[in-house]
Every structure is written in structure tokens, then in C-alpha cells.
């Protein structure tokens, strides 16, 4: 994985006249303005998240495939929404006989069971976003409310299983049906019964016109994060190889802190098919494939939340709808 190119530059480096002293002599001071680089990885989805697209790394006019996505819907009868998906992909069920209610759309009452898995080019799963709290309309309305938001877990692979890294909640704002509210929290390792969390961003996006989902800690208090021991492989490019998480520098799971620009992803309104989700990630927060993949999974969850929070009077596109069927 190659970094985006960015070099420091000097905008001003000379004396400046600021007036005269009491003797009429010019008063000057020396000013040097230096702009430090803010290198970022840039990724672009090849299609809508629910269509299981490829994800490309973009450098100028060059696009190189680095990830593949697999969107899936869990069985509507599965009530265990908080169970962790297995690291291996389950075999597809065989629908032998459609039930009498096959034409019904369960998503008209609730939207649940969505997940998207990010794979590297070898086919190994490197991140996942899994809907763990259903998106349901609040009583007396057709919208998901802030008092009862839907939620996703963002997961990373650790020692053959999935480990939660972050939690995303989303809803529609009460006074503005076009405003998608969201909150993203980091989940920390904790010896206590309940894991500690830190909110990194809590804001809104205009779901009608589209917008940006941004995590920027430049003017915020830094957030400590934990460091699990997981293998990382940057693939081709400088610094490639495998290390344990404890040997890496500052990144997603390092013992250091989140500082500066972290990530930004574009959020489409769902109508302009030419606009693909684009993700920018601060280079200092990526030390391995799993780091970048976790942010890509988060961007996909934000994108899918726009659909999950649509009015329940509206019909979702077919990729997001589940039909009742008799499975044996």
C-alpha cells in the first residue's frame, strides 16, 4: 500500500515591515511560515456498498484494486443480532420452497441483519461492519429516532475471531427529516464488566444532498487506544512485511493516541449513481492492511445507514430487501 505524495513547503521566509519606531526608523521582524505535509491514503468504492464492490486505492489518475467487499443479509428469523459472525463465509442456504408470504418485505417494519465484510486481494477477511441493533421506526412515526438509534459494530480479525473496535449509531433528526444524525465511539479493552468507550465524532449529515463523515482530532483532546497483538501485512510498497501489533508505530491499535486528521468519507444521497464513496485516511493512522480496512468498513456502514434510516414508507432497493422464504 503506497502513501499519497506530500512534501513540506515554505510559504514565507523573510523580514516583514510592521511600522516605525519613535525615531522614525522601520521596525521589522522575521517571519517563516512552513506548511507541514498531511499525507493521506485515498480509497474509492467501485460501486454502491450493498452491491459488494471492489475498493481501489487512488493516486492521481492511477486506480489500483486493494479490497473487495461482500454485502450480506442475515436470516430474518435470526434473533441473535449481537453474535459475532464467523471468520469463514457460511455456505448459502438453499431455498427449496417459497412460503406463502414470499412477496412480503420485512424491511417495511424493521431493517436488520445487514453486514459488509472487507477482504484483501488474497480473499482473507480483514474488517467487517455488522448491524447489531435493528433500525426501527419510533412509535407514531416512520423514522428512526435519536432515542432509539440503529447501531453497527466495526470489527477486526484477531487470533481467528472478530474483535469489536468501534460502534456507530445512526438516526434521523426530529426537526429535519433530511438530517442523518450519527455517533461513532471507540471501544477500549477493559478489565471491568462493561467496556469503556470514547466518542470520536457526534454530528449530522444532509442525507438529501450528501455530505462528509469526518473524524478530525486536530482541535480535540487526544484519545488513548489499546494495542492487540495481531499480524499485519502492508503488501507491496515501502515497509511491507508482517509484524505484531505491539511492534508498530502510532496507528489504530497502538498504545499511542489519535491526533490530527483521522479520516473522511463522502456520503452520497443515493440518487446520483456517478458519485462513488471516497475515503481519505491519515497516513499516521495506518500501519497495516487491517488498519485501512477498518476505516473502509466504517465508511461503508455510514453509507448504508443513509438507507437504513430512510422513511419506512419508502421501499428500499432490492439488494437491501429480504423476502420471507422457507429454508431447509
UniProtKB/TrEMBL annotation:
InterPro entries: DUF1005. It holds the Pfam family DUF1005. It comes from the Eukaryota. This is DUF1005 domain-containing protein.
Amino acid at each position: 500500500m503506497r502513501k499519497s505524495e506530500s512534501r513540506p513547503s515554505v510559504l514565507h521566509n523573510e523580514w516583514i515591515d510592521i511600522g516605525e519606531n519613535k525615531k522614525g526608523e522601520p521596525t521589522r521582524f522575521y517571519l517563516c511560515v512552513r506548511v507541514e505535509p498531511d499525507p493521506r491514503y485515498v480509497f474509492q468504492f467501485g460501486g454502491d456498498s450493498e452491491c459488494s464492490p471492489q475498493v481501489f486505492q487512488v493516486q492521481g489518475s492511477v486506480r489500483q484494486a486493494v479490497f473487495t467487499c461482500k454485502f450480506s443479509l442475515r436470516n430474518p428469523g435470526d434473533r441473535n443480532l449481537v453474535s459475532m459472525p464467523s471468520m469463514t463465509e457460511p455456505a448459502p442456504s438453499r431455498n427449496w420452497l417459497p412460503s406463502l408470504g414470499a412477496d412480503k418485505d420485512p424491511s417495511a417494519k424493521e431493517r436488520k441483519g445487514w453486514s459488509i465484510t472487507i477482504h484483501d486481494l488474497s480473499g482473507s477477511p480483514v474488517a467487517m461492519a455488522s448491524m447489531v441493533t435493528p433500525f426501527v421506526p419510533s412509535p407514531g412515526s416512520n423514522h428512526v429516532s435519536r432515542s432509539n438509534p440503529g447501531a453497527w459494530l466495526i470489527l477486526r480479525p484477531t487470533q481467528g475471531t472478530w474483535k469489536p473496535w468501534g460502534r456507530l449509531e445512526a438516526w434521523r433528526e426530529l426537526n429535519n427529516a433530511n438530517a442523518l444524525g450519527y455517533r461513532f465511539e471507540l471501544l477500549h479493552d477493559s478489565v471491568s464488566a462493561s467496556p469503556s468507550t470514547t466518542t470520536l465524532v457526534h454530528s449530522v449529515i444532509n442525507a438529501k444532498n450528501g455530505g462528509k463523515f469526518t473524524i478530525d482530532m486536530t482541535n480535540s483532546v487526544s484519545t488513548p487506544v489499546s494495542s492487540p497483538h495481531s499480524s499485519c501485512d502492508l503488501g507491496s510498497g515501502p515497509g511491507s512485511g508482517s509484524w505484531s501489533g505491539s511492534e508498530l508505530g502510532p496507528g489504530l491499535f497502538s498504545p499511542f493516541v489519535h491526533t490530527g486528521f483521522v479520516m473522511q468519507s463522502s456520503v452520497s444521497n443515493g440518487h446520483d449513481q456517478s458519485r462513488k464513496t471516497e475515503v481519505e485516511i491519515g497516513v499516521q493512522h495506518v500501519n497495516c492492511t487491517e488498519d485501512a480496512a477498518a476505516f473502509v468498513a466504517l465508511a461503508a456502514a455510514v453509507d448504508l445507514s443513509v438507507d437504513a434510516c430512510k422513511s419506512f414508507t419508502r421501499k428500499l432497493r432490492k439488494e437491501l430487501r429480504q423476502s420471507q422464504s422457507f429454508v431447509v
